[in-house]
Amino acid sequence: MSARVLVVDDISANRKLLQAKLSHEYFEVITASNGQEAIDMAREQRPDIILLDVMMPVMDGFEACQILKTDQDTQHIPVVMVTALGDRDHRLKGLLAGADDFLTKPVDDFALMSRIRALTKFKLVMDELRSREANGRRIGVIEGDEPGGPIEPARVLIIDDNERQARRIAMSLKQEHRPILWSEARNLAAKEKAGIDLIVLSLASDSFDPLRLCAHFKSQPATRDLPVLIVADFEEEAKALRALDLGASDIIMRPIDTEELSARVRTQVRKKRYLDTVRRRLDESMELAITDQLTGLYNRRHMNKQLNQFLQRANSGGEPVSVFIADIDHFKSVNDTYGHDVGDEVLREFAERMRENVRPADIPCRQGGEEFVVIMPDTTGDMASVVAERLRRHVASQTFAVERGRNQLDVTVSLGVSTSYGSECTIDDLLKRADEALYEAKQSGRNQVKSRAA
Questions:
Q1: What values do phi and psi take at 224, rounded to 5?
Q2: DSSP secondary structure string, 54-71?
Q3: Active site includes 436?
Q4: Confidence at residue 70, expressed as pLDDT on a 0 to 100 scale
Q5: Which long-range contacts (CB under 8 A, 24 or more apart) does 143-147 make?
Q6: CB neighbours (10 Å) of residue 23?
Q7: Most CB within 10 Å of its CB: which of 186, 281, 415, 450?
């Protein structure tokens, strides 16, 4: 897996050394000599990973990292701080500035490549989601600001068969988050388990294989996107780096510094919440693309797509597909008498009653105005008429409350049913015959169901 890496160091020899190592592994490398130049290049070149030295003139790595992580154009780019300063204070300062990881010079080749590959996987997922989100914003189905703000307490699952060590980790996280031990999690309901935000996994466990468990989490759809923070002893570094290859997100070494643990957990939770927010926006944009915003029913575009699929199957010898068109009687007089706001209330209430009275497999749609269509897969005309009649009775039997309950309106609906036939029935054919049946219902006095046979 290749990537574009921005190497930032004020010493030319260091830049060339890292460039040579990365180029040997087929990474594309660009370089900068100070923090300000790094920010400019990140905005212009959009690298996949930034290797950022700490001690530099003009602007040091901490300040540059903080700026990169607060800029919407660069905040999603993983930053690995590389420095000769390996002490606790500098490591914490880098993590608090937003760094995704921290490497100490001289950089171990295996550690460097493992971290870059792990962060590249995350960046590829992020780029795909951001690209899809940008498309949604461009066509107007995604609105609002970029996700951000303070993170809410996370549910952290701690997996360590040493109960004392697990409880010590839990205690250090308790002020900010909601930790739960593996022994306690086994008794949780599936819904509660689904609320986990982060897994802290110890490599020192004897009763199970931590690497196999890590691989299991990353292979299951329900847990694939959960960040995994590995806890390892220094002699287990190679094993910890192997965990990164298997999909783990980060490593913390024992003895555990509580502030460093808190900073690393915070970083991983923030990244997960960001991904979750982007995914949710994309799901909402997909829903908006196929639903009518006033009623929440499917729109005409989705109706045609679904009808086309069911008709292809029916025309090839499959079960027939039926539709009925429902048109609210005298709807224009509602708008003229009470105004369009009340008209909208009637449409929303009618849509809700339609949802309640069709079958689970049926597809209710708003075709436009006061006209609605229900697609009924694998349904004969007689059965479709039964469902349409049930909806008609339910609408006519109960008044519609409007203007916050201050008024009650009597509403009726006329419906026309049609069913696919032969091997060449088209969407236009099916809807035209349903529309003819609807016209017959209107001409016959409204508030009734009519069917048009093939």
A1: -60, -35
A2: SS-SSS-HHHHHHHHHHS
A3: no
A4: 92
A5: 144/281, 146/72, 147/273, 147/274, 147/277, 147/278, 147/281
A6: 12
A7: 415
Q: What is the pLDDT of residue 34?
A: 93
Mean pLDDT for each consecutive 10-residue tract of the chain (454 residues)? Answer: 88 93 92 94 94 91 94 91 77 86 84 86 81 64 54 89 92 92 71 77 91 93 91 91 91 90 90 85 76 92 92 92 96 93 96 95 94 96 95 96 91 96 90 96 96 74
CA 186 to chain centre: 27
Identified catalytic residue from 370, 403, 424, 440: 370
pLDDT at site 94? 85
Q: Residue 163 in contact with residue 183, Cβ under 8 Å?
A: yes
Distance CA 400, CA 402 (A): 6
User: How many Å separate Cα 355 from the centre of its chain?
Assistant: 26
Q: How many CA atoms lie within 13 A of 331 on its CB side?
A: 21
Q: How far is CA 214 from CA 29, 201, 208, 230, 237, in A?
A: 31, 8, 11, 9, 16
HSE-CB of 425 using CA atoms within 13 angstroms: 29
Amino acid 98 reads G
3-state secondary structure 151-190: CCCCEEEEECCCHHHHHHHHHHHCCCCEEEEHHHHCCCCH
Q: Compute the radius of gyration of the chain from its Cα atoms.
A: 30
Burial status of residue 204 (CB atoms within 10 A of its CB: 0-12, 13-18, 19 or more) = middle
pLDDT at 189: 53
pLDDT in the model for residue 127 = 81
